[in-house]
Amino acid sequence: MKDITVYTSTTCSFCHMVKDYLDSKGLKYTEKNIAEDKEARMEMMKMGFTGVPVVIIGDEKILGYDKAKIDAALED
């Protein structure tokens, strides 16, 4: 099983959709809320992202709620 990290913010509806999707698949993930965690925000920005959600599955980085990309990253 690949490690999954999701960068989110409290008011982001797409972030909630990503978490709900991962939950529906029974997947465990680490959530990093950039609104509450300055270090998480800096980590995400160092990767070149300024918006959420950012889903990291193994080495794959996915911006936004993209089920096809999430599923493809899980299969690799």
TrEMBL record:
Q: Which GO terms describe its biological process?
A: cell redox homeostasis
Which InterPro entries does the entry mention? Glutaredoxin, Grx-like_ET, Thioredoxin-like_sf
One Pfam family of this chain: Glutaredoxin
Q: What is the lineage of its organism?
A: Bacteria, Bacillati, Bacillota, Clostridia, Eubacteriales
Q: What terms describe the molecular function in GO for this protein? A: electron transfer activity
* Signal peptide span: none
Top-level lineage group:
Bacteria
Gene3D superfamilies registered for this protein in UniProt:
Glutaredoxin
Q: What residue stretches are annotated with the Glutaredoxin domain?
A: 4-61
User: What's the name of the protein?
Assistant: Glutaredoxin family protein
